[in-house]
Every structure is written in structure tokens, then in C-alpha cells.
Amino acid sequence: MLWSDPKNEPPKELREAQAKMRRAGLVLALLMMFAMLVVSVH
After folding, report:
1. What pTM, to 2 d.p., does this model score?
2. What is the DSSP letter of 42?
């Protein structure tokens, strides 16, 4: 890294995309748990 490089921080768009992916992963995990619960009940 050069001294003139900006701080090691991703751009705003990338941070927003990462937050969306994290939320999507959380929702997917909850859906999977719910699906397993439904399948085990039947």
C-alpha cells in the first residue's frame, strides 16, 4: 500500500451490496429453518 492510497474502506456501493447480501443470507437461513420445520411436522 502506498502512503497516498485511501483508507482500506470499500466504496459506498460495495458496502451497500455487502449489507444486502448479508440480509439475503439471513433471510435464506430463516427460510431454510422454516422449511425444515414444516417438512419434519408432516
Report:
1. 0.61
2. -
